[in-house]
Amino acid sequence: MGRSAVITGIGVVAPGAIGKEPYWELLTAGRTATRRITLFDPDGFRSRIAAEVDFDPHTEGLSTQQIRRMDRAAQFAVVCTREAVADSGIELASHEPHRVAVSIGSAVGCTMGLEEEYAVLSDWGRHWLVDHTYGVPHLYGYMVPSTLAVEVAWEVAAEGPTAVISTGCTSGLDTIGHGAALIEEGSADVVFAGATDAPLSPITSACFDAIKATSPNNGDPEHASRPFDAHRDGFVLGEGAAVMVLEEASAARRRGARIYAEITGFASRSNAFHMTGLKPDGREMAEAITVTLRQARIAPSEVDYINAHGSGTKQNDRHETAAFKRSLGERAHEIPVSSIKSMIGHSLGAIGSLEVAACALALDRQVVPPTANLHNPDPECDLDYVPLTAREHDMDVVLSVGSGFGGFQSATLLSRP
Q1: What are phi and psi of 210, to 5 degrees?
Q2: Class of domain 5-254
């Protein structure tokens, strides 16, 4: 029998909820965490709303030196890692350090630290030639995304394979797939896998404003994220992180670990078509789903729940609906599907790991989170999108999918242990 990876610990920093249990309570209550941006002055921007994390690094146990050294995204990742270790009950001292690996995803790295430092170095853009002597000692670390994985590795004394995976908005799924592969191939016995992004800065807002991808519903931020709704008008930016402890399944069982889920399949595809555009037939996402099912030796009829990408843009929600029908056939109409971005926004590279965490908890609790704000379903999105209210549901197999700028399409399957 081959090696397989299981999830034994979960750590979460999310809008409206820090910690695994508050996060699950927020999701199952259908409570939204979207609001007017407070991290900077959003006046003058087309979209002035976001899903922010109310995060105090001192309260969350980080030292003054760590706070000085780490960008907000790295702080999120370390706090998540600590919770995941405690949740798993794993004794890291019993594992050889070179058998412990780290796989961290991020779409935009240390955006906030970089932008803040550029503002200082250029005197808020007044000088074309910046004065490097005003830079903080850790500025280089902000420039190099690998520091995100390094901080997690330092936290757990991991000396095995350590990497950052940056594939846009599928980063959080791809890093889980990579972590599971490290265990399956025998390169590691324990992997800290997840993703983090703290992109809520003027430069990020300006970029998404330019392509009109984010919702301009500034007057009603609580209901602005409306996946699959006929009146949806773009996604709502978010931030956050989730890190999970992945262990080799037989070893986890031997130590009596609580196992949330087994990672039974993963696949990723690219559409080689357009940086932001999607073909309406959903072929590439459908292919990723099909390959994932084949890898797991699971039939479409066995899928019990789909955690959708569900960004709330016109083209994504239609593309995704088509992909489910193409890959799952008539079964697609029978499977509950939901998007948690309706509650916690779209945290770019981090969202996939937050969604995998939600899927693992859904399997563990046998409850499907709802799609909030879905009052007027789009006729072209005609599946069961679990509107407004969480639903108790028998589940053995859960599918989570992601779609990212650049044409990335990823799918992950989780199964009950």
Answers
A1: -60, -35
A2: alpha beta
Query: Is 346 known to be catalytic?
Result: yes
Active site (annotated) includes residue 375:
no
Cα(34)–Cα(32) distance, rounded to whole angstroms? Answer: 6
Return the domain boundaries, the chain. 5-254, 262-415
> Do the two domains 5-254 and 262-415 of this chain adopt the same fold?
yes
Per-residue pLDDT of the chain in tens (417 residues, 90 and over written 9): 589 999 999 999 999 999 999 999 999 999 999 999 999 999 999 999 999 999 999 999 999 999 999 999 999 999 999 999 999 999 999 999 999 999 999 999 999 998 888 888 888 888 889 888 888 888 888 888 899 999 999 999 999 999 999 999 999 999 999 999 999 999 999 999 999 999 999 999 999 999 999 999 999 999 999 999 999 999 999 999 999 999 999 999 999 999 999 999 999 998 887 777 777 788 889 999 999 999 999 999 999 999 999 999 998 999 999 999 999 999 999 999 999 999 999 999 999 999 999 999 999 999 999 999 999 999 999 999 999 999 999 999 999 999 988 889 999 999 998
Q: Identify the DSSP state of 40.
A: S
Catalytic residue among 95, 178, 309, 319: 309
Residue of 110, 178, 346, 359 with catalytic role: 346
Angle between helices 146-156 and 72-88 (to 10 degrees): 30
Fold of 262-415: Peroxisomal Thiolase; Chain A, domain 1 (3.40.47)
pTM attached to this predicted model: 0.96
Q: Which residues contact 184 (CB under 8 A, 6 or more apart)?
A: 2, 3, 4, 5
User: Is 95 a residue of the active site?
Assistant: no
